[in-house]
Amino acid sequence: MGPPGAGKGTQGALLASRFGVPRYSTGDILRASRRDGSELGREAQRYMDAGELVPDNVILGLIRKVLSSTEAASGYLLDGFPRTVAQARGLKDMLDEADQQLDAVVNLSVDDGEILRRLSSRRVCEDCGAIVRPETTTDSCARCGGRLVTRPDDRLDTVRRRLEVYRQETEPVLDWYRESYAGVLDISGAGSVEQVQERILTGLAS
Ligand code: AMP
Fold first, then answer.
1. pTM of the prediction?
2. CA 164 remoteness from chain centre
3. 70-90 pLDDT, tens per residue?
């Protein structure tokens, strides 16, 4: 968990490959649905472009589908979900039904000034969604050759709205986890990708 630009996608991808589990990013799934022109993508588009959250029932339906896949049977990492208390409750119901538990909730925190700085220069691959490291100077994706672009919702006014939505809707989820679970692993998202990853791994180990 964490605000936009905290590094969820980058750190999530590293963690998932380290633990050998699939990573399910609701944002990535929604963007892929938009590229495919599917109904889900069309429904999500106007919310995403405005920096608003896609309705809980749509997101919970999507999560139910991915978590019931055989690939998810021996563990997974969720990125960008849950973002509302209703989603967190929905996830708990699904986990209870499947007799599964959350092993950890990792919260990356970064201050607003740094978020605005990071997102204003962030580029992603139009085709595979890979997040490009800031020092990259080329215009094509090293993974699939796709074009590197600025995400439409990384525009300044939309980022401001996404931050507001994060404070209103998603911060209460952290409180909910703090009260209802063993706790939340709070990690500073400042510094290099490697430093943050090291902090997360140390936190998880302890
Ligand atoms: P992200 O890539 O995680 O920053 O998500 C991009 C956008 O997708 C968000 O600003 C929302 O519009 C939508 N989205 C992603 N995950 C969720 C979620 N769990 N609940 C509602 N909307 C979401």
1. 0.90
2. 17
3. 999 989 999 999 999 999 999
